[in-house]
Amino acid sequence: MNTPQTLGELRRSTFSESRLKTRRVKDELRENLIARLRDGGSIFPGIVGYDDTVVPQIVNAMLSRHNYILLGLRGQAKSRILRGLTALLDVQMPYVAGCEIRDNPYEPLCRRCKLELARLGDELPIAWLTQDERYVEKLATPDVTIADLIGDIDPIKAARGGHDMGSELTVHYGLLPRANRGVFAINELPDLAGKIQVGLFNIMQEGDVQIKGYPVRLPLDVALVFSANPEDYTARGKIITPLKDRIGSEIRTHYPATVEEGAEITAQEAWVRRDGLAMHLPEYVSDVVERIAFAAREDKRIDKRSGVSQRLPISCMENVVSNAERRAIRNDEKTVVPRIADIYAAIPAITGKLELEYEGELKGADVVVRELIRTAVAKTFDRYFADADLQQIVQWFDLGGEIQMAESASAMEALAGLKSIQGLLEKVKQLAVTAKDSAETQVSAAEFVLEGLHAHKRIGRSEERVFTAGEKPRKQDPVVSREDFPERQRGRRSFN
Fold first, then answer.
1. Its pTM surpasses 0.70
2. Higher confidence at residue 446 or residue 147?
3. Contact 87, 1 (CB under 8 A)
4. Is 41 helix (H, G, I), strand (E, B) or coil?
5. Burial of 9 (0-12, 13-18, 19+ CB in 10 A)
6. pLDDT tens digits, 88-99
């Protein structure tokens, strides 16, 4: 069946007139959400770790037909969730062709569409909105005006159309009216000036907006959603109390609860599958990259109010793969296999994503990040080698052995040196790596073992990546009590 192109064709189609007249956007979202719940489908595909926390709260808000706000630190998928709401809208929606506010052809709001309906009747042209076209997003900034959001007088319209300045036909509609019959999202709501936030009162409570200078109200049909960072309440602005009172639900987002969830997000978002060379990304490398973010979120030298975004492991992983790719290209290797050394080479992808406290600033971002990587390596190492006997490897270094593992060294060159370390290549079997695997894979696994021993201070490593024996703990000086000294040596004076 062809899509109706006029109001008359729309009346004769399967689209219910009464349904289009009475069904509002929040009802539409609610009905489609209920259908999705009954089918057992995912509400927000691609969103990991929120199934038992955030998503149920969003579902409750939508079933209640609430306007709601997602409140959370940076990098917690707030914008992505809001944009995912389009999947809960109807596949297509009819509107009056050419209408700036996507008027319902049965009940138009703007003066132009009312005049066109009266003039053309059933010949009124109809156009169709897709799901994505029904989502309007605005990043709040301090320079946003009421005219941007609601609308204002347009003298150019008046001049071109020969209208009086008081005519409703001279209105220039803002973003909010243009989101009519759809979803309107405002990101970083606290950045919106307080007097501009007041302009949202009517649409949230009475369901209409008033255009500046006009005795006209538009009863818009809009679902309003917001996002905000708690830190912004004090750093850059705040949500005024009357507006907070009108927001139906305040939903808190969070970072991944487990390393596994974080790794799943990073694997989903990071660009690691490159064209050209084959790629093998060891699980322990992914684990270390993810644990850097977890260690940073717990570190006292890093500002917890600012948060550590999930973008950190994503960017870090992309740099890790790129460094391994560069090494493979230069050494004419067939497979790209990242090593722990590549994570240290990815420090520039980490430092810019951390806000340091005073103690961290004193040490410097590079030093802090290197310590975070070392902590992450140690925790990942314990996952594989917590009960392993690695004394033979440690003893090899204690007896004077040393090896340089330059991050640019080819796999064959590095493997030749690693074979001299007693017991090392046998231990990588715990990483499911054997002598049958490629040289690149064996070198990556062996280096991880050495980095793990270094992280636990059992062997040493220089900045030039030369692994040596670890520093031996100094023998403590014997504890001497005061009774071991005569009175005059202790500085006391006796009087008889």
1. yes
2. 446
3. no
4. coil
5. middle
6. 999 999 999 999
